[in-house]
């Protein structure tokens, strides 16, 4: 089989799925998925460039734009394939691995700011957490916008699940939160946010100390996080506690 001269039949087998067939054998698969913010992300699994290109061309023709995909920046072959299909970089997320040991992070001897207390993951009351979530959503929508947020941070209902959040409280109100995906071997920090009028007081650092310290006590050595390349405050926060950059992902768009 000469991959460069394949005779393929590209079939949309379902609303979200495409197959590339050669001699009645599946040689490639494509899928589109919708993120909570409504954006459509494509993925293609194909052994040969020619299969990838024909699948991409068909999917792009079948779907309304804009379309998106995410690529490990180190995977140059896959990046080139999507660029041939007309996709271009839109944003970069740095991947970090963060130690949990307070002797490495320097967080063990740092108390929360005066008047601030932290509640561990699962300890927040749903009502105040929902009120803080709404306030932070308004701030996000008015500044960077939801298109710059991690995919798992939903732009609307359902309300936040206290089992995934640690919070900071001050004067009887919740003022900061951190969202944690409780993965067994390496918890993932998906979002740290503090009310805009209370930033630069060490609240985010206190939240990070709570989450990492809890993981360390459970015998978990590291956590992970993705940080937008332009988010200087988050980069400084993570690198300030010993986080190590391990890679990057590119979000590509076809408009």
From TrEMBL:
Residues 116-255 form the N-acetyltransferase domain. Transmembrane segments: none annotated. Keywords: Acyltransferase, Transferase. The keyword Acyltransferase applies. InterPro entries: Acyl_CoA_acyltransferase, Bact_Acetyltransf, GNAT_dom. The keyword Ligase does not apply. PANTHER family: AMINOALKYLPHOSPHONATE N-ACETYLTRANSFERASE-RELATED-RELATED. This is GNAT family N-acetyltransferase. It comes from Luedemannella flava.
């Amino acid at each position: 089989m000469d991959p460069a001269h394949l005779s393929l039949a590209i079939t949309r087998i379902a609303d979200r799925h495409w197959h590339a067939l050669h001699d009645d054998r599946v040689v490639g698969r494509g899928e589109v998925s919708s993120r909570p913010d409504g954006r459509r992300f494509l993925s293609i699994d194909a052994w040969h460039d020619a299969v990838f290109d024909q699948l991409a061309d068909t999917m792009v023709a079948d779907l309304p734009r804009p379309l998106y995909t995410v690529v490990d920046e180190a995977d140059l072959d896959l990046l080139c394939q999507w660029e041939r299909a007309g996709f271009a970089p839109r944003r970069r997320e740095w991947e970090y691995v963060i130690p949990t040991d307070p002797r490495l992070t320097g967080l063990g001897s740092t108390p929360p700011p005066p008047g601030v207390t932290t509640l561990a993951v699962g300890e927040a009351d749903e009502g105040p957490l929902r009120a803080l979530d709404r306030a932070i959503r308004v701030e996000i929508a008015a500044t960077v916008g939801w298109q710059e947020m991690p995919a798992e941070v939903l732009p609307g209902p359902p309300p936040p699940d206290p089992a995934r959040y640690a919070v900071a409280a001050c004067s009887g109100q919740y003022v900061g939160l951190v969202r944690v995906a409780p993965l067994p071997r390496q918890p993932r920090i998906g979002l740290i946010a503090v009310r805009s009028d209370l930033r630069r007081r060490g609240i985010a650092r206190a939240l990070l100390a709570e989450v990492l310290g809890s993981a360390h006590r459970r015998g978990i050595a590291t956590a992970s996080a993705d940080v937008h390349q332009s988010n200087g405050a988050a980069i400084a926060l993570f690198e300030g506690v010993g986080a190590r950059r391990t890679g990057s992902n590119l979000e590509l768009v076809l408009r």
